[in-house]
Every structure is written in C-alpha cells, then in structure tokens.
C-alpha cells in the first residue's frame, strides 16, 4: 500500500573516497550505540523502546479479534492489523535511517574501521532452565527475565543491520573494515596491558587495578579493538 521510486545508475566501479589517514576502533553497546577509540560516542536512539507504549496498545487492540485470514477480517479487525504493521514499519525505518547515517559518518571519516566480531545470535540466546534438585517439576531462578530485557535492547539497537550496512558502504568507498576477537577488549588496560575483570568495577567505569588508569569503559574497548584490528591488518598484509 505504498509507492516506491527506485533510481538505478550503471557504474563500472564505484570511485573510492579520498583517503583521510585516519583509523578507528568502535565498541557497540546498549547505553551508547557505539563508542570510538577517539573518545566520541553515538547515542542509542532506542526506537523500539520509545514506541513500546503505542505498540503495546495496538497489540492489545488487535488481540480482541479472533485470528482470521485476511479475506475474512472485518473492517475494524483489518484496521487494527494495519495499525500494528504501521508502528513496526516506522520503528524499522527509523532504525535503518540511524544505521545508514552512522555508517556513512564512519566511512567518510576513516580509512580503516575495526569492530568486535560479535556473535549476536549467541548473545541473545535464552538461558537454559535450571531444574530444582530438591523439588520435582520446579525450577530455580535463571535470570530469564533480565536476559529477555537485554535481548530486547540488543534487537532494538540493531547491531547486525548496522554492520551489514557499514560493510556495504565501506566496500563502495574503498574503506577497510576489520572484525576482531572481542575477548577481554573491555578488561585490558590500554596503558599497561593488565587484564582483569576487576578493571571494570561498573558498566561505564574502567579503573586499572595495576596502574590506576581510568577512563570510560567503552572507550577502552574501542581502543583495544583498534589495536587488535591494526595487528591483524599488518599480519595480513605481511
């Protein structure tokens, strides 16, 4: 029920953007959509969270109708279906728009972009149930409610969509994107190299237990991602 205009242009090979001499590491997150190795942050717009109240109301209105095929729906039933679809479509378009703009800014500013090789599907997997050994048929708390909230936040951020767009834009612009192992990137001190989970006392704070270096934890992650990316890049070119 929409009109789309598609413009195509034949081009043998996209012209790469002029080199900038800049390299950057990025750390994707929830509180901030991303932090870069230069200490800059991109805020998380949380489009799904902002639209949650309207979506919930629309879903409740839809739930009052029995499930039927499209040809058998009443006018009010179809109106409720369309309202839910419109709200989901608006969230999806806003998420895509944010991903395109953020990726374009990175590609224009940097020749090399390093990021964590996140296994997003594994990160959003539901925790396994914990049977209670003392009571048959009962289960122990397994953090499922908290994990469900985290999974919604990960889906709302749209990391997978963003990385797909980033790779496509980088290829057209002649930029290089490097994925690195995310292990210990937020626990390693960029000053002395000390690795410890105690280096991150809170979600946002990094405080090295060896040398006392302190900075935003996401910036530390981005710095270590950049360093790992450059090491991998140099090893590959060698």
Q: What is this structure, in a nutshell?
A:
The chain is α/β, with parallel strands linked by helices. The protein has helices at 47-50, 52-63, 75-109, 120-123, 144-157, 159-173, 217-237, and strands at 23-28, 32-36, 41-43, 112-116, 130-131, 139-140, 176-180, 205-207, 214-216. The strands form three sheets. The protein has a five-stranded mixed sheet.
Would you mind describing this structure in some detail?
The protein is α/β, with parallel strands linked by helices and 238 residues long. The chain has 7 helices and 9 strands. The chain has one domain (23-125, 138-237): 2-Layer Sandwich (Nucleotidyltransferase, domain 5), CATH 3.30.420. Helices cover 44% and strands 14% of the residues. The strands form 3 sheets. A 5-stranded mixed beta sheet has the order 3-2-1-4-7. A two-stranded antiparallel sheet has the order 5-6. It has a two-stranded antiparallel sheet with strand order 8-9. Helix 3 crosses helix 6 (159-173). The N and C termini lie far apart (54 Å). The relative contact order is 0.17.
Compile the SSE list and pairings:
Elements (H helix, E strand, L loop, with lengths): L22 E6 L3 E5 L4 E3 L3 H4 L1 H12 L11 H35 L2 E5 L3 H4 L6 E2 L7 E2 L3 H14 L1 H15 L2 E5 L24 E3 L6 E3 H21 L1
Parallel strand pairs: 1-4, 4-7
Antiparallel strand pairs: 1-2, 2-3, 5-6, 8-9
Helix pairs in contact: 2-3, 3-6
Top keywords for this entry?
238 residues; alpha/beta; Nucleotidyltransferase, domain 5; five-stranded mixed beta sheet; two-stranded antiparallel ribbon; 9 strands; 44% helix; 14% strand; flat
């Amino acid at each position: 029920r929409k009109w789309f205009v598609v413009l195509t242009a034949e081009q043998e090979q996209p012209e790469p953007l002029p080199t900038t001499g800049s390299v950057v590491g990025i750390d994707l997150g929830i509180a901030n959509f991303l932090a870069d190795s230069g200490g800059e942050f991109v805020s998380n717009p949380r489009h799904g969270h902002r639209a949650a109240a309207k979506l919930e109301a629309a879903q409740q209105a839809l739930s009052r109708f029995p499930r039927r095929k499209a040809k058998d729906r009443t006018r009010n039933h179809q109106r409720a279906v369309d309202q839910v679809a419109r709200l989901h479509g608006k969230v999806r378009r806003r998420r895509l728009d944010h991903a395109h703009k953020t990726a374009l800014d990175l590609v224009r500013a940097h020749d090399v972009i390093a990021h964590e090789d996140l296994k997003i599907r594994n990160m959003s997997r539901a925790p396994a149930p914990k049977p209670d050994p003392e009571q048959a048929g009962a289960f122990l708390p397994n953090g499922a409610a908290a994990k469900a909230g985290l999974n919604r936040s990960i889906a709302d951020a749209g990391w997978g969509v963003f990385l797909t767009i980033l790779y496509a834009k980088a290829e057209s612009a002649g930029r290089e994107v490097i994925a690195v192992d995310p292990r210990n990137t937020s626990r390693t001190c960029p000053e002395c190299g000390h690795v410890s989970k105690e280096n991150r006392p809170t979600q946002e704070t990094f405080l090295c237990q060896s040398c006392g270096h302190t900075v935003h934890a996401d910036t530390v992650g981005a710095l270590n991602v950049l360093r790992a990316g450059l090491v991998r890049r140099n090893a590959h070119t060698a």
